[in-house]
Recover the amino acids of this structure.
């Protein structure tokens, strides 16, 4: 999923739009905050406490969205590979943080705060 970090003085919803533009070259409109999450996890033997905001977005120009199943984006000098996944197939893939598999299936619910200890 496109995403990243907010810049100093940047609102989280504005950062989402910027990251989509930078990574896959499309303009999006933020519809609403789906959830905020505190994710406690270990990676490469180090402990982390990540605070994330997950937004529902809509492509401003549907024709601008990549139509092929696999498509590429960029983050700095890195090439990123993206794939459209139907929501009913999310359980077939590794998605981190893992709670997103269920949260993405209910895009019309109210915003919520989630705390995960993995």
């Amino acid at each position: 999923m496109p995403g990243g970090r907010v810049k100093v003085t940047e609102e989280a919803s504005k950062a989402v739009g910027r990251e989509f533009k930078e990574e896959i070259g499309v303009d999006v409109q933020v519809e609403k905050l789906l959830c905020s999450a505190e994710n406690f996890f270990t990676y490469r033997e180090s402990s982390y406490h990540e605070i994330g905001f997950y937004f529902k977005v809509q492509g401003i120009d549907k024709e601008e969205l990549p139509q092929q199943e696999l498509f590429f984006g960029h983050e700095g000098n890195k090439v990123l590979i993206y794939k459209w996944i139907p929501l009913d197939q999310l359980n077939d893939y590794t998605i981190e943080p893992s709670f997103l598999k269920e949260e993405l299936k209910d895009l019309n619910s109210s915003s919520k705060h989630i705390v995960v200890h993995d």
